[in-house]
Every structure is written in structure tokens, then in C-alpha cells.
Amino acid sequence: MATHTCKVLLSLGRMKSPAFTPHSPLGRVTYATALSTNRPNSNKGFTDGGNRGGPRKKRISWVRESGEPRTEKMAVDQDWTAVYPAWAPFRHGSVPLPVRMGKPMRGGVPPEKKGNLELIKIPNFLHLTPAAIKKHCDALKPFCTEWPSALESDAVCDELFPIKLKSSDYVHAGTSLRNPSARIVHLKVKLSSLNLDDHARKKMIKLLGDRYCKQTDTINITTDSCPLKQQNNDYAMYLLTVLYHESWKTEAWEAEKTVADMEEYCWEDSPSQKNILDTFVGMKVVEEGDAEAVREVVLGRPEVQEYRDSVTRLKNEGESESTMLQYREAVRKLFNL
Amino acid sequence: MAAPMDVSRQICSLARIFAGISTLGTRGLNCGGHRRCIPRYRPHLPLAPTASFHSGIASLSTPSSITVTEEPDTLFQKVSVFVKGHDRAVLDSYEFFATLAAKEFGISLSKVFEPPKDVERFTLLKSVHIFKKHRVQYEMRTHFRCIELSHLTGSTAQVYLEYIQRNLPEGVAMEVSKTAMEKIPEHILEPMWKDQPTDKNSSQSEQS
Predict the structure, then answer these.
(1) Interchain proximity A241–B89, CB inside 8 Å
(2) Which are the contacts of A214, defined by CB distance < 8 A and separation ≥ 6?
């Protein structure tokens, strides 16, 4: 008889095949039950615990002795999916594993599976062995569809399907099965994938405000004002549509845009340009003449062009090594230093 | 491509059929070696009636057929299944089940990981009255597991998620976040003002 010292198996997952136990010459499942346990088997019928030598109560006639457990009759290569086809609680007579669970008392081992409540309490996966999973999947496979082979990488997907709609579903048990967070919808689009001209792009960014991320160039719209997910979905698409069409419109009051509202630095009509013109005229590098002609001549000069580029870059990109160096070089060339 | 409504009904009926097939007999030692001696849709006659766990099985109805509709399937770039429970071993087993099911369905798994557990501890007074120095501490441990799948169609996602959710063990909660991808709808491709320059001017003159 094979003897096992088994550790406590908390949940009976990962069973590979019905052949759990080593083969014995009889071809039947044998395992140890003779290890000492802490709780003595209670007799059927009443026994007077304190009065062993004295008179015993009569055995109840209709209570049968339990027969041989089914595990004795199980073949090693049986089909386990037939024993546990769907979820069922743990039955010690149906599971031919020498499982022990519980806290071992001093000098003892964890209690055996017969009459063990701990094994019944925990969730078991006896109905989800790999064989069973494969069977289920084979039956469900015809309902699945294949992913289109042309959309292999994320880059291709982003190019062809730029709009991403993210939503969550929740499964849990409780007094209510509904979760109010399930109605929230997040919409993500890359601004570059929309058909916008320069003015429309700037207006769109102004309209979006916080919802636009400059680093990743994405629009994030989160809708949760409607009670249902489909409604929030529709609302998000509606917002996108409205933003798009409104940004192409040019309102009358947009003509009042001041320099402070501008998103980028523009050198034309800036104090820097005026300074350059004044400096050149003051230095008498250029002859005084028609204002227009003077202006054109000054601005046409390559050093001034370079200076313009460096100042624009400095203002737009901020201060860094390369921008400062470029500015320095431009200024040097201007004044022939 | 299967319609969503029909799919759920068909899965239910298939599950019932399948349960019916398996419980109607142990199949004994004859078919012990084969795994797939039953063809997919025909129910199997019992060899010997044994005690079935689920008496009163639903009738072995005719196998459900798959309907194909013209409406385009949704495409999910990412489906993230996030489970949480109090028992780590249960989540281990569930992860094994979910990953094996995904492989069987042919779904690509991008990431399977375990976020760190969350422990909520609190200290209470041990006694009902006075004895402030003697307290008792309790803690509740929540373990997490995240399975990220990528590139799923709507039908596949529905089938897989329904299968996963029906076999969710007790005491485990799940959150599924799906990222669907869509093309830019037709009404956002071109601005509507392009065809109506006169309207635009009139609206400007109205406002000024």
C-alpha cells in the first residue's frame, strides 16, 4: 500500500490527468488512510461518551452504514470530465486524492478529507481541468471570429482606426450587481489624424483645454454624465463632432486675438523686429530713405534672417544649450564681432 | 461574424447541451483513452445510468446553429481582465484557467502579471468596556491578478468573457476594461462649412 505524506493542498487546481496516484499491481487506487488523525471517527448512532462500560443506547435502525466510496471503483484512466462536469462542492467520496487540510495539532497531521469542512469551504476547480477546458473551448470555438490579418501591429491599427473608446465592465456579487462606474466612457484620438487646417487646429486646442495632451498629441474626452454606457458613447462622439465643426468656423470676435493669446511666437511685428530696424537705421549701416525700402533691405539681409530664426526658436522651444548658442552666433554675425 | 444576441443564447444552449452530454454516463473504460469520441453536436447516449449530479437536465434540444450577420464586428485593441480576491491560491488557479482558455481560443496574451496585494489593517479595542491597553488587530488582504489580451474581435471577446465569467469562483470579483478601435466617422472627415460658404458669411454678419 502506497503511503503518502501530503502537504495541505489549498485549492485543487492544476490537475493534469486522472492518473494522480502511482499504479499499484491491482490497478486500483490505493492510498493511506491509516495515518493517525486527531479526531476519532464518530460512530453512527449514539454512544454515551462518558460511560463507556455502561449501557449503550440502541443503534438507530434506519441509518445505514455508508458503502464503499466511489474512489475505490474509479479507474486510473477514467474521464474526469464526467465525474465533475460542472461546478459541484467537494465530495470526499468522488475525489480520489489523498488530500489533507486543516491545522495539525501537536504531534499530528492535518485532518483527512472525510468529513473535512475546510475542503468544502474553499472554491474548487475540479470541474476545470485542462481536459475539460479544452472540451469547452472546442465547443465554443465556432462562435469566435478571427482577427483580420492585415492589422498586425499597433501602428497599423492606429493609422486605420484612430478613435479608441475605452469602457469597463464589472462582475461581482453583492446586494446589487450593478456598478455605476460601468457607464464611464473614455475617448482617445490623435489630433494629427483629424482633417484640420492651421487655424482649426489652434482653435480646437483652445476649446479642449485640459483634455488635450501636448506631449502625446492626444485628445482625451471622458463622459459620465449619462446613465447608460451607450448614451455616454454617443455623447462622446457628439462632442468630437461638435468640436471639429466649430473649430473650422471663424467667428467675428476671433479677429480680436491679441499677441498674448497667440500660441507661438511670431517675429513679424514683434518688438524684436522693431529693435533690429531701429538699430540698423541708427547705426547708419543702411541709408535712410523710403521706410518700406529700408525695411525690406534690412530684413532681406542673411544675418537678420538668421537672427530671426534664432529668436523664434528661443522663444518657442525655451532656453537650452543649442538655442542659446544659435542666438549668440546670430548676434555676433549681426554686429560683426 | 455572429450577432451578439444570438451568441449568448447559443452559448447557453451549448453549455446546457454539453452538460447534458457529460452527465449522462461515465462512459466507462471503453472511451477512457479517447478525449473526443463525441462529435460536436450530437448528444451521446448513456452507456449505463449512474447517479447524475444534475438531475432533471434540460432537454437535449437540436444543436444551435451559428448565425452570421452583415453588421461589422467591433475590434478590440486591448481587453484587460483584472481579478481580485482574498485568496491567492484561488487566483493562481483562475489565472491558469483563463490563460489556457485564451490559448485554446487563439487569443494573444500580451501581459499576465500580479499587482502587489492590498492589506487593510485596523486596530480595535479587545474588550467591550475599558481596558484601553488591550487591543486586537484585524487585516483584510486583497490579492490581484491582471490578464491583458490584445487584438480580439467583438464575437471572440464576447465568447471568451462569457466563458471566463461563468466560471468565476466564489469570492472573486472581476473588472474588464475593453479598448475598442473605430474609424473616424464620415461626418468628421470634412467640415460641413465647406459646402456652405454663404451660410458662414451670413452667420458672421448676424453675430457682428
Answers:
(1) no
(2) none
